[in-house]
Structures are given as C-alpha cells and as structure tokens.
UniProtKB/TrEMBL annotation:
One of its GO terms (cellular component) is cytoplasm. This is Indole-3-acetic acid-amido synthetase GH3.5. The keyword Zinc does not apply. Residues 465-577 form the GH3 C-terminal domain. One of its GO terms (molecular function) is acid-amino acid ligase activity. PANTHER family: GH3 DOMAIN-CONTAINING PROTEIN (PTHR31901), JASMONOYL--L-AMINO ACID SYNTHETASE JAR1 (PTHR31901:SF5).
Amino acid sequence: MLGSPLTHIASLEGIPISPVKMRVVSLEGVIDEFEALTKDAGRTQRETLQKILEQNGETEYLHKFGLGGRTDPESYKACIPLVTHCDLEPYIQRIADGDTSPVLTGKPISSISLSSGTTQGRPKFIPFNDELVRSTMQMYRTSFAFRNREYPIGNGKALQFIYGSKQAKTKGGLIATTATTNVYRSEQFKRTMKDIQSQCTSPDEVIFGSDFQQSLYCHLLCGLIYSDEVQIISSTFAHSIVHAFRTFEQVWEELCTDIREGVLSSRITLPSVREAVSKLLSPNPSLADSIWSKCVRLSNWYGVIPALWPNAKYVYGIMTGSMEPYSKKLRHYAGRLPLMSADYGSSEGWIGANVNPSVPPELSSFAVLPNIGYFEFIPLEKPKGQQLAKTASTVHYTEYEPVGLTQVEVGKEYEIVITNFAGLYRYRLGDVVRVAGFHNSTPELQFICRRSLMLSINIDKNTEKDLQMVVQEAAKLLAAEKLEVVDFTSHVDTSTEPGHYVIFWELSSDTTGEVLRSCSDILDLSFVDAGYVGSRKTGAIGALELRVVRRGTFEKILEHYIGLGAALSQYKTPRFVGLSNNKVLQILCRNVTGCYFSTAYAV
Ligand code: AMP
C-alpha cells in the first residue's frame, strides 16, 4: 500500500482517549487531542503540576522544602528553589548508589540516563523512568500526525540511523545508559514505531551492536535491501545522517558486492550482527546493478537519498541548534526531498513538537506539549554595552522572575525551567529559546543556543551560536573553491600572552595557504561581540588562529566519545574544547596540518 495515506493507528498509550477508541485511533484523533491540550494550556499546566506533585508528594526532596502537600503553582514557586544539575547531583548519586527510598520520585527510577556530555566533557547522570518513555511516545505521535497530514506515508519502513550505546550498571545496580538507548529498548518504542509506520529497516542486533562502524554499515545495507519500502530517512540528530552518507561514499561499492553475492562483508565481525543481517541477505544482482548505475550517475552524490530510496517522502531529524551546520550537506544528499526538523527535548525531558513540518529547518519551532511537564520561563535580556560583567561560565543576561507557559511574549528570549515526572523540580535546562508564536495558547519555541559560554578570555563573550555564525561566514570563501568545512570546534589558547581564540577546521579537501589566511581574517572579524572587538583592538586578545586538521580527525573525536559510552544517536560535536578535555585536545593538536593567524587587526 505504498503511498496511500495512513489513516489509522493503534494503541495510543499516554493520550487520554475513550475505551472505545483504545484499539484504533485516527491520526486526526491525535491532532484533536493536541488541540484540546493546548486550547487552555494554562489549565493543562496547572493540572499537570498537580499530578506531578501528587505522584511525588511523599519524596524527601519536596518534604525538605516544606511544600506540605500543596499542589498549586504559587505555593510550588514560593517553596521550591530553581536548581541546576549540580544541585541535584547528590540526590541522583544516592539513587544511583542504590537508595530505594523516595528521594526525588514517588515511583521508582528505572534507570539512569547519561546525557551526551559533549559540552562539559563528562556525561551527566539524569533520572529516567517510564513516564519519560510515555512522553517520548506522545511527542513522536504528535509530530508524526502533523507531518503525515502534509506528507502522508503509507505502509512502509524507515531507514533510521539509530544506535544504542553501552549499558553500565551503577553501584546500586541501576542501568546507566543514554536516554535514547533507554527509549529504543522499551517495548513502547517498538509499538509506536509500528503505529506510525516508522519501523526501522535494521534488526535490533544492528541498533544495539557494540561497534557503531559495523552498525552503520549494516543500517545502510538493510536500508538498501528494503529500498522500495523505505518512506522516511531519519536519525535523532542531523549529524548522524550526514555521517552515514559520508560513510556511504566510501563503502557503496562494497555494499553493492554484498547485495550482488548475498554474502555479508567480512568487515562485519560481530556474530550477532552477522547472523541477523545475513538472514536478510540473498543474492540480488539486479538490485546491486540498479544501485551501482544510480551511484555512478550522481554528480558529487547530489540527491543520493531520493535516487536510492525512490519512495522516501522526507528526511527527518533534529536540524536546529548545533545541528544547523550540517543542514547544507544534508540538503545536498536529500536533493528534491524535503528536510523536516524533529522535536525538541533533552535527556531531562521533552519540551515541544514540530507541528509545522513544512517550515524550513532553520525556522523550525516547537509547540510545547503542556501535559508532559510543568514549564517556566526565565525572561532574559541581553545587557547593553559592557555595563554587566559575565559570570564564570554562562552568558550574562539580565534575568527576571520566571513566568508561566502562557505568559511568555512573542519575540522575547527565555531560559527554560522544567518540572517533570522524572523527579526534576524547577530544573534550569540551560537552553535559551525565543518565542516564535503560539499554537492555541501554547508557545512555539525556537531554539537559540545553550546558555553556557564557550569562548571567553576576558570581557569577551561568545556562545556556540556566535561561533556557528562566524564559521558559516568564513566558509563562504571556501564555496568558491568547491570546498566545505566537514566539522569544526574551538579552543582558547592562553599559553600565549595575550591569549587568543583557536578555531579547528576539518576540510573536505586541500586548499591554498592564501585562501586559509583569508578565512582566518574573516573568522576574526566576524566575532562581533563588543568585548571581543574591543580586546582585539587594544591587543588584550591576540590574533585568532585557524588550525586545519587532517581528514578523519573529527571521526576520531566521535570514536573517542563513543568509547566513553556516548551514543552516536545523541552525538553532538563539542564546539569548544577546554584544557580539561585534554584527550580531545590531543587528538586535535596531533592532527594539525597547518596554522593560519589572522592579520585582521594588525596595526
Ligand atoms: P542531551 O543532553 O544529550 O539529551 O541533549 C539535549 C540538548 O540537545 C538540549 O538541551 C538542547 O540543547 C539540544 N537539543 C535537543 N533538541 C533540540 C532541537 N530540536 N533543536 C536544537 N537543539 C536541541
């Protein structure tokens, strides 16, 4: 039934539906539920907070602050302080160590999620329970229902580049793994994927294989085996899709050989993965020929996705925030297919669904689901001029009292505070968002950046977003040379006096020193933060240095993080590497092929 619109899906746990509707519910029903939840989002929020506090009323944490069983927002805000992860660490550590008393949650914490940790250099421990799986499914279904309305898909499969990560046990015996792995392992995930016609083309052995290179190869292979059935190409983050197709460029001939002969490449050595994938393989010379002839006709791999997956309707994954730099390459691979940016959430909990899927990824916003948590927003205002100092590690905005979900204003920026069923109370997420508009009475948020400051030597302040824009500006020079920045990161070198910014670039191929010197000038000039410009002019910050690294360096960094237990599905290239992250710094420094200092501010 390829191409025919999907109208019915089954078993929608987590959404209040009538018993009669329990077995078969239309996607329109999912949309109706969403409309109902957001119609009076303020009321849904009060009810959600009440539920969270009732469920967790007996916890040590809520007792400590004397909430005394009250569940209204006013008492809650008056008694419970705003916290960051550091404040909760001792509690989470006790849970990890085996304390089974209700520390943070009434219901037991089923496992510990490890956040990607690529920003801080070490993973954070976050409590995980079934409520998070439930809200994840609600999020998937909601955005799927909206997507399907505009881009209907029929019975089929999804080529999903998803990867489980290593599972460790905490001292107290809880499983500790990434949030995505916790979700992929759940029964509800499988059911929902089936419901929304997004079953992965790869068997579980591939998703949970212990070697991500082998898993990636097999994802590509299984995707090709089922090429006619694939309707969606996706991953959690856009980076994984780009990474997959960069790999495809290297291994496509080998994949063709496997399909032609029906024998899996010897590069797949893990017995469980070999066995599972071999079952799907049988000699298919005509498919191999067709893939081969399509690949050789492509120009620089433009449009490889629709060429090989002719029934694919779109490419789906998070493309906002730190994933923006990959969308250009993704567009190249996707050719005529639309790119759709996926929802907004974190290991700590989900926030919003993309309910306007046809909006281009750069402009995507996320409608907050008002029943998955209680949300507050700290109004942030950029300081004018230099009158405000920065704190050690975050961008210093002027902060105001947190406001509720329905009190935010269009065009303004906020830091999100979440309270949810996983035992996070008034937890500052550290993300800055801008309100783009409203869907009914729930806000649609645009992701702006992580609040943490990356590049700072003295009075200068630059965030990940600033770096991203600067790199984008300088990379325009490369476009003329048909070159691209494969990946990038930054560092502050204070071993020189004065200290200076270092930008590391991996390029798709070589270019002249002249071009790279011009790039380093543009990088230097494109940091427009007044503190930086002033310091550069007075010489309080030295000339920016562009260091070009060998091809494959960022792959080594990725492997390093995977080795530490990160999941490829959740991987985000660290955009700043500090001295404390010495392993990654070593990988970068060992692979430098050329350094180019800016002469932009030379006097
Ligand atoms: P993690 O802690 O590994 O789960 O990563 C969560 C973080 O990823 C969030 O706090 C955001 O900074 C970022 N993130 C998640 N979803 C999105 C999105 N749709 N757009 C931009 N950034 C996102």
